[in-house]
Structure prediction request, 454 residues.
Amino acid sequence: MREKKLDQMSIFYTMPGHKVAKELKAISLIVDDNPEVLDLVYGDLVRDSRTDTGRVGMTAEQVLRCTILKQYRTMTYDELSFHLDDSLAFRTFARLNPTQTFGGSTLQENIKSVSVGTWEKIHNIFVRHAVSKDMEKGRKVRLDSTHVDTNIHYPLDSLLLQDGVRIITRWLIEGKRLRPVPGYTFADHRRVMKKRVMKIRNNRSKKVGKEAYVDLLRYAGRVRGYAIEAMEVLYAFVSEHVEDVLSARVLAEKLQRAVMILDRVIDQTERRVVHGEKVPASEKVVSFFEDHTDIIVKDNRETRFGHKICLAGGASGMILDCVIKRGNPADSYMFPLMIERQEGIYGRVPRQVTADGGFASLDNLRNAKVNGIKDVCFSKKRGISVLDMVKSNWVYKRLRNFRAGIEANISVLKRSYGLYRCNWHGWAGFQQYVWSSVVSYNLLVMARLSLASA
Prediction:
């Protein structure tokens, strides 16, 4: 039976005196001061299951605290499992009983059960806690955007075609293990696809490369035909073994999704290589596994593949808000939304806002002033006079320098909290990863502030 929290911890568990242990103890006190976050996590854990039967499993409190540990120390699930067994400080923080131990798969299943909406609500609860303790006032806000990569290889069309053939072939082979054996036929073209990809990579001749691409498209078309034939057979599959019927249905759905993505890859490759057309970024697919990935182009810098996030930071160093958007929206488009969300969090707009030059526009300035923001500083003026933004040059310089601090916050999030690259699967997993990292980062900032003032 699932529980929200343990009634009583062992008297033998005490937190060591190491710096990390002191930080964990301070974070623990903050979590204890906000018990409503456990209600949110508990609601997600029992959403699709009964609460009055079955094994006890992890409590909602343990799930939340283990997630914080994972992101705080940027560990894999297996590493987290080891340290929970090995470290007295980690076990004490996670509120584990002496006999409790959890494997990596158990930790993953429970941690991934916490929804995106729950993480955002938890974030807002902790931000309001910081305000109530005078750690953060939310009167001076700095805005910036960055990107977080998804866990994919560089999306060359040749590699994407190879991925499609490899994935579909693997599932076709898996289907042949059903009882009775399904009656579709196929050929394994993975080896020849690999040879053509290597020819493209190792030859500088455009003619040779184009010929290799034509071969790739031909073999990809054949594999697509195998998959369509197999889908019809698998959807109509009948067996006395119920588990095989279910497996056939799942394989058919996987093949259907893979064929849809392969069709887009074939289309964009034909348009680009055969017809010499420039394919817009919005029409491209860059991964079979993380097909939600966006193409992020910023000025003349390297193209990135992931998602753009906009962050609002405060004077304390905390991240006050985070917005994750599909596509590649301009920063200037995001500015009104970020201000509106600040009003939703605090019930008022900030007194001063400073943002990167990409957020600058005359409409954004006017909108901010109409909503009651006294000083608005864009790091690049974009034709807007200083005195239109703020009341003096001195205020402009102070706010411009203050904005630079969020660059350091973003650097810490990327280096120490894993926001350089998300390794959780799917669009929902991407958002969960970002929000859990932001929450863990904020808790550490609040813990250090409380330790400094003690």
Summary: Strands lie at 140-150, 294-296, 304-313, 319-325, 352-355, 375-378, 421-422. The chain is about 55% helix and 10% strand. The chain has a mean pLDDT of 92. The longest strand covers residues 140-150.
